Amino acid sequence: MTAEGALPKDGPPVERRQHPGAFLVPGWLRRMTALGWRVLVVVAVAAVIAQIAIALSTTTLAILVGAIVGATFLPVVRYLRLERSWSAGPAAAVASLLALGSVLAIVLLIVLAFAPYVGGVIQAERDGVAQILARLTELGAPTAILDYIRRLAAGIEGWVGDSVQQLLGPVGTIVAVLILGGFLTFYLLADGDRLWTQVTKRIDEGRVDALTTTAADALGRVGRYLRGTAATAITSALSQTIYLVLLGVPLAGPLGVLVFLGGFVPYVGAFFTTIVVLLMTFAFRGGIAALTLLALITATAVVQRWLFQRYVYGDRVRIHPALILVVAPAGAALFGIAGLFLAVPLVATAISFAPTIVAILDAPATPAHGFAFSPIWLDRLAQWSWRVLVVVGVVAVIAQILVAPFLSTPVVIALVVACAMNPVRNDLVARGLTPTIAALAVTLISGFIVALILVVTLVTVVQQLPEILDRAAQGAAGIGIGSGPEDLLGTIGPTLLENAGSIVQNVAIISVTLVTAAFLTFFFLRDGGEWWHHLLARVPGDRREIVGSSGATAAHILNGSTLGTGLVSIVNGTLQFLMMTVLGLPLAFPVGVLTFFGGFIPYVGGFIASGLAFLIAIAAGNPTTVVVMLILTVGINILIGNFVAPFVLGKTVSVHPAVILLAAPAGAAIGGLVGMFLIVPVIAIVLATWRSVLRLFDPDDEQRPVAVSPPPEAPVRPAPARPTPSPAPG
Asked: Which end of the chain is flanked by fewer CB atoms within 10 Å, N or C?
């Protein structure tokens, strides 16, 4: 007999040994389908993961940027910790500042030395192509060759234009990715070892050692690859800029920046940038100069390859050029220019981990395997994969129900308010009120507070938001560092105006939602405990305690998160209002209210509100006011982040800041503002209760370590003398 839930090993769910017509199915077909379903479920899991990554693109790119930048600057942390005996925090901070400086330098190069000259580069490239076509036409070249050159030139022109547009277009997304990636870089460098220990602590020791060794080796190799790529891009850009200057080619600086950016895209980037600089040289200095430049570029590439292979790359990850030519366009198709840059390092990491993962999955746990035609590692991966698909499907359905507009808003409001106000209701009951009267009193008080907040929002923030954004735009224009701040504000502003406009247009709908939420709040407060007891009564006795403790933990976290976040937001909004009032700045009250609402969106909301207030200070104040505003803003954020928030929230929401930073954009992608508000308490609940949930489904597994090995129901080849039936599908 086999454990319940395993998929069939060599055929469809109908048991072929017991089915009278099973002998009609050829053996090759049984083996092909047995191998096929395993491949299908593994591919399906990979596709689902890819779709989730695309849907949560901001979070995905931030994770990739943080991991890749962290791997690049990891030697700095190791040097400071091992050679200078620094602690993890300061070492990570120094490395993160170096990384931030490098990224800012690249951004300034793109914005100041490349973007303004893109039109000139494209026009010069067109002139060069026109001259080449004219020469070839005079020589009687075939029409097919001329058409191919035209298409190649058009493709290069489109590549340059699209790259610049993607780099400079969605400024808000780029800034968000860089901010999140920068913070994540610091946390990975500071707490990476502890995170790895937490992730692998339930895996048996032998396999943890193998994974740890592989991870360290992969980090080293990928880091060397990234540093070598950066060194190649820098030296190529500098050398070709010098060659272009010596040959008298105009726009040498912008072309050097283009060569630098292309150096991060192996093979493909160098191919396109080389063609561009050769066309430019040919257009302005003729064929001899272009041939000379080609010879210099080739000689430089040969020297680079010899020097970097010996002194920079070392024992790096080996990636076949054919694979690079496949994954680079795939990354660009999925994530744009960022995917083009990040695809190869990601594949390099996967290549480093693949042998160890396969070896772990391939280790035989029994003398024989159930289906010799299928590799053991593939069978185990498939057994995990179809179960992962089922769990992901259930989570997706739950998430869609939670964020469904017709259901989520009143239910979420009622649930949050009920959890937050339940201690008050219990206190009133303890003072002698009946549950109905206590629930009604709490509902009326909370409803009055929510209605008051809504009225204040309509009267102040919604009506004065255009003026706030206009003043902030004036401040952004007055900074004098280019169009970046204005573009960023142009990305944020429409979203705020759209949300404010929807509030005004949908006042009736909002009112109905709030009334419905008020009735639900009353019923949750009055009857919620009774409903919970009825639910627990239907849970088997050996698991009732697990469900009860998990529910109590979830309610406690939601209660603490709601009240704590509300109090922190009130403090933040009040301080913002007082600070702007003392400095004599306009729009103090609506900005304070906006800061209050921003406090419910972790980090992101406070950043936007503080940024708008600072830009208003630049537009309406003098230099002294701006400096004081900057000092007070930083001081208030330090005060709230390090003292007020920990004191108010306590240990209710013990979630790492890196998780909160990554969760905010993910919550927005899943459920908009509701998702951003709920994502942090949901993650806190999951982190606090997941072990109890696992025990709920497997109570006997409480003390047994979990190993990365085939699940108990994985099929095993039966002994020849006593054949057993194939397992039934789960």
From this structure: N
